[in-house]
Design brief:
oxidoreductase activity, acting on the CH-OH group of donors, NAD or NADP as acceptor, oxidoreductase, Dihydroflavonol-4-reductase, Epimerase_deHydtase, NAD(P)_dehydrat-like, alpha/beta, globular, seven-stranded parallel sheet
Length: 354
């Protein structure tokens, strides 16, 4: 759904890291349908359970899919997959909030993986552009950070300074990984780095059992664990299909530069549940009211949510300025209702609530 016209270059293959991921799947789909040869870097190309959906899309598309084995923490493992590619889409990075060792499970793969991929790009003469999937998490940790931003709104000029290994280590991993990317990009002049910073990604997945935290949230909203009420936890949301288009624009709009907040809606958990009510309310125990903040604060730790997180996010409005992405990348966004309904319908079809 892009307004800025750009031509997808099919003359050179492109590399997509983490190609079996939720967001990457839609990027691969759009590229294949545009006729591009896609080098898909995955951990294990022989695991057809993880790659079948990509192969099926390729079979029905004008483009060609080639699978390559690569590992974020193995130096040089992307060299073969990147050889001859004009654009590198680096999407691979762990997205989970339940970790025992944040340094080992989040920081190292995000930061070292980014270094590994971008240093390989420096050594690959064919690469002219790198598109990095960063996150709004590299801009903020908690909705309360919006209040400290200029005019109370997050922009691309803001960097996350409040995440730590102890508090929201996922946000720290995205911040450090993006900073590493800019550092490497600044030390060379062969390729241009363009960064995409999405908020929480929603919408249907192409594979059956996606691992993104977004699906865990919808399972909580529609599965009954929040039927007494959902917190007004301030957050941004964007449809995965619109985000995929943002990646293609970041790759092929000639003037694209810098960071881009890709977020369609300033929203919260209860509003996301309300978007599902019309179509799914009769069959699923969706929350109908806001959970009082004091109750979330009391119950939070037993649900793995720290009291600091409750204090800084519940009943706190999340606000980001998405103007740059709209103007520079020509983005337009689906309604939240459409994204949530399509996501839920796919989860139901895949047996997520059995």
């Amino acid at each position: 759904m892009s307004g800025t016209e750009f031509k997808v270059d099919t003359s050179k293959p492109v590399l997509v890291t983490g190609a079996t991921g939720y967001v990457a799947g839609w990027i691969v789909k759009d590229l294949l349908e545009a006729g591009v040869t896609v080098h898909a870097a995955v951990r294990d190309p022989s695991n057809s359970g993880k790659t079948a959906h990509l192969t099926e899309i390729a079979d029905a598309s004008a483009g060609t899919l080639k699978l390559f084995a690569a590992d974020l923490l193995e130096t040089g493992s992307y060299a073969q997959a990147m050889d001859g590619c004009g654009v590198v889409f680096h999407t691979a990075s762990p997205f989970t909030t339940s970790v025992k060792d944040p340094q080992k499970e989040l920081i190292d793969p995000a930061v070292e993986g980014t270094r590994n991929v971008l240093e390989t790009a420096r050594a690959t003469p064919s690469v002219s552009r790198v598109v990095l999937t960063s996150s709004c998490a590299a801009i903020y940790t908690d909705a309360a950070d919006c209040r400290d931003a200029p005019n109370g709104v997050l922009t691309e000029d803001v960097w996350n300074t409040t995440a730590s290994l102890e508090h929201q280590p996922y946000s720290l991993s995205k911040t450090l990984a993006e900073q590493a990317a800019w550092e490497i990009a600044g030390a060379q002049d062969q390729w241009k780095l363009v960064v995409v910073n999405p908020s929480l990604v929603v919408g249907p997945s192409l594979q059956k059992s996606p691992t993104s935290e977004s699906f865990a949230l919808v399972k909580m909203l529609a599965g009954g664990s929040m039927k007494m009420g959902a917190p007004r936890f301030g957050i941004g949301a964007v449809d995965v299909r619109d985000l995929a288009q943002a990646h293609l624009a970041a790759a092929y709009v000639e003037d694209a530069e810098g960071r881009h907040i890709v977020s369609a809606h300033n929203t919260d958990f209860l509003s996301m549940a309300e978007a599902l009510e019309g179509r799914f309310g009769a069959d699923y125990p969706l929350p109908k009211r806001a959970m009082p903040k004091w109750l979330v604060w009391l119950a939070g730790p037993s649900q793995g949510i720290s009291r600091k997180t409750v204090t800084r996010n519940v009943n706190v409005a999340w606000k980001a300025d998405n103007t740059k992405g709209k103007l520079a990348l020509g983005l337009s966004y689906r309604p939240l209702k459409e994204s949530m309904e399509d996501m839920m319908a796919k989860m139901v079809a895949d047996g997520a609530f059995k």
